[in-house]
Amino acid sequence: MNQLDILLPFSLPPAPMARDLLRQCKAPALAMLLARGTAAAAPRAFDPFSRALPHEHWLSERFGLPRLAQDSSPAAAAALMRALGHAPAAGLWFVLHPAHIHVARDHLVLTDIGQLQLDHAQSQRLFAAAQPLFTEIGHELVYGDASTWFFRADDWVGLRTSTPSAASGRNVDIWMPEGPGELAWRKLQNEVQMQWFADAMNEEREMQGMKAVNSLWIWGGADAAQAAFKTPYAASLGMRGWMQAFAAQTDAADQAAATALPAGQLAELLSLKGERLLLLDQLIEAALAEEWGLWLQSMETLDREWLAPLLQALRDGQLDAIGLVLTGSEQLLHLQTTRGSLRKFWLKPSLSTLSA
């Protein structure tokens, strides 16, 4: 079947403000796809304290990504290491992100790591300062890129960790690691924080209006021997970061490059055959920051640049069906719209499904 699934993280706004937001939102293509679509799966509700966001859960399930422990973040470290040019032969590896944690009224809050603006030179400087602390206690530390490092901790099997997106903007105590290695990690994290506190680089960053890099976030524990993942998709597009890494390492023989796809490349997207997945993640940053004016702008841009031409492609027969996977912070809806269902003219376009 020539089907395109579109994953739209944070397209379901928080219930208290959903009606007001949707009243202002001008997204006619999305309204048409929602009104003429039918449920492809039962709606799902997630624990508000889950260690991954709904779209992260859905993606990891679709790609058969295992977990290091029950109620833990997806086991992404090994795939992400390979994507960044490393090939761990053995051991249990975790993802590390340099991070900014700030003090709220009575707790500590993790800032969205995507806002850190850490360049290669600064990251290398922080890595060099932290590495001896890891080596001293027998943990190998590996540099991936400016925002992503890795370290080995073979005896931490069962440690439950949280994705940085799940913890962003929230009290970090609730999403801190729990289980084997928990105390050792807290001690190591504290030592790194003290080491970086004395580095003049953070003062320089703050003078330039950037956030200090004052902590590390751990997640994604995975065995180096982890096998290739399985997926129903012939191509996965628009993927970024760890999602791009594991999508690129599936065992689908004709797996297309799992890359971020600019809006101008719709022709390339439509030229592919079979089941495809398109991730449109432009709403995440605004939702995590609770910038709802920016969320509205991003939603309308997505509708104009992506959903409207894809709806037209469905009408023209270039696609047989469009699946919409809509998520919020605690819920997920999966709808499917076919070319035939577009003929249900008595169903008026509406965004009301987003507030259900």
Automatic annotation (TrEMBL):
Entries under InterPro entries matching the protein: Regulatory_RpfE
Protein name (record): Uncharacterized protein
